Structures are given as C-alpha cells and as structure tokens.
Amino acid sequence: MPELQQPLPDAPDEKVGFAVVGLGAYALNQIIPNLGSTQHAKLTALVSGNAEKARTVGRAYGVMEEHQYSYDDFDRIAEDDSVDVIYIILPNALHREWTERAFAAGKHVLCEKPMAVTAEDCRAMIDAGKRAGKQLMIGYRAQYDPYNLRAIELVRGEEKAIGEPHLVFTEHGRMLKPKEEQRDEWRAVKELAGGGSLYDIGIYSLNGARYLLGEEPVSVTANYREPSEKEVDVEEGVAWTMKFPSGATANCSSSYRVEQAKRIFVQGTEGEVTLDPATDYYVRNLYVKTKEKNTQLIIPQANQFTAMLDEMALAARENRTPKTPGEEGLRDVTIMQAIYRAADSGKEVTL
Fold first, then answer.
1. What is the domain extent for residue 275?
2. Do residues 238 and 280 share a domain?
3. Is the pTM of this model over 0.70?
4. Is residue 239, in this structure, part of any structural domain at all?
5. Which partner for 178 in 135, 184, 218, 345 could form a disulfide, CB atoms 3.0-4.6 Å apart?
6. What is the DSSP letter of 112?
7. What span, in angstroms and rounded, lies between the C-alpha atoms of 31 and 38?
8. CB neighbours (10 Å) of residue 163?
C-alpha cells in the first residue's frame, strides 16, 4: 500500500445516503459530482419537479427510479431507508417549508444558504430539527475551504501573522442575468429570493468578516447602491459597515452589476491577508504581506465541497451538531435583516 494523500473512503454500503432536492446548476455541476469524491457520503435519491431530468440524472449516477421523487410525492421519502440526509438546494423562500418536511420525514437536513428569508423562519427550522431529534447544517462551503481555514489561522490563530486585525474589506459581486441564464430567474424575484445581491452573494462578505475576525458585530450602517432600470424585483447593490467589540471594522459590499468580485482583505497592525478570489468554486488565492516578505500560499487537495459534505455525513452518522449548524444561519439572516433596516432608515442599527 503506498503512502496515501488522504484516507481511503468508507465502503459503499457504509456511506451516509444523501437525497438532493432541486436539480439546478449548483446541484448538477458542484454538489452531485463531488458526492462521488467524498469519504463518507453517497448520492442515493433525487427530488425534482422535472421527471425527465430526474431520470436522466438518475441514469448517470445510478439512482434507480424508485429513489426518484417529485415535489408532490416527496413525503414518501420517509420510507426510503437509503436516505439519511436531505440536501435542500431550492430558492431561499422555500427553505423553511422543505426543511420542515424533511425533518417530518425523519431525515437529517443540509440546507443551502441563506438559511431562510427571515430570522423567524430560521428559528422555526431549528425548532423542527430539535423536535425530530435530527441535525440541521447550513451549506457554508467557504468555512470548509482549506484556503479560508488557513486565512483564519493567519488572522486570529496563535501565530498572529498580521498582528491585531483592525480592518476588513470584503466585496462580492456578479452580473445578474435573469433573461439569459435560467439560474438567475428566481434570484430576480423577491417572493422567491427574499432579498437581492445581499442574500445571494453578500452573505459571503458578511460571513467571511465574521469568521475571519472570530467576533460578532455589534452595529451596522448601510446604504443601497447602483439603482438600475432593469426589471429586477430585488436590490442590486448594498454597501455596509459593521463594528465589532474589539474595535475592528468591516467594510462590505454586494452587487449584481459588477463582473465577478470575490475578494476578502484583512489589515492588521503587522501586515495583511488577502483572499482573491476568496469564495470561487474552483480557484482560491491566498496572499500574506508583512514587513519581511510577501507570500502566496498554495494548498493542494483543497476541495471545499467534499469537506462540507463529509462533515454533514459524519454529523448525521454520529448525531452530533455540525460545524455550521442552523444557529450560524440564523445569525447571518438576523444581521442581513438589520442591514436592510439600516439602509432603509439611513441610521445605525444596533445588533
């Protein structure tokens, strides 16, 4: 046996079974392919409103038709012993309903972010999991990414590579194209999305500032940016500032009218750490600058998706709280609602 770069996976019949709800671009291009590369998880069921699509995907991944469900007959999944975890990849406004239905079916839940549209919905999802005795995890893939994890160590680990962190700048943006790309259609509709660029990609800026500093913000100011004449039912740009108990400040932004911004930059008393891009699916770059040198760190075998999926699988197997539980999703949604209140009022909102 050669020296292994990573441990061997579990035997197929020992892996934790996942059902994926919603067969959109993210599910088909990122999640389902990476389930096949995990150590502890496997795809065992599909849920889709399009039976033909489900059959096509099922044939490709070996999911038989008896494990393919429509949205109408989803509740039958309670009888499917091959399913341990239900991964909900649907528009934001549907997260609460489908999480509650999954828990009612007796399954653990991995739900995409943002967790829900309102803090009230988030709390209801957490309560449903507790009543069912099952685990709820939110899909914060960046918190499982080796590049972001190394950045956390550099900023607030024992080495304190950049001294005391004082300023965070984060920006996430992309062009929203609801008339050209099917994946953007629901994102332009507030009834389904719950919010605009803030909920979709600004959450990376918000969550990134929180996990890099290791603190919770105490207040926020905000303003809307980049008004557009396009027929879009959600805000296209938000800029906000968060203050933290240590005195650190985070200046953040989200936009639906810029081309691919995914940057997080932390300045400290002795240097700076930059992730650019910070939250891309395929490429992340990490730079550290101090008085002595500038360094780019390269981390091999950096698959954020398999790490996230394996954490959910182990949390389900051990019936323990996952690294990014519902409470983490609730915190972000609570803060994002405060950002909207600050932008609407033009006043500082205390958290």
1. 146-301
2. yes
3. yes
4. yes
5. 184
6. P
7. 11
8. 14
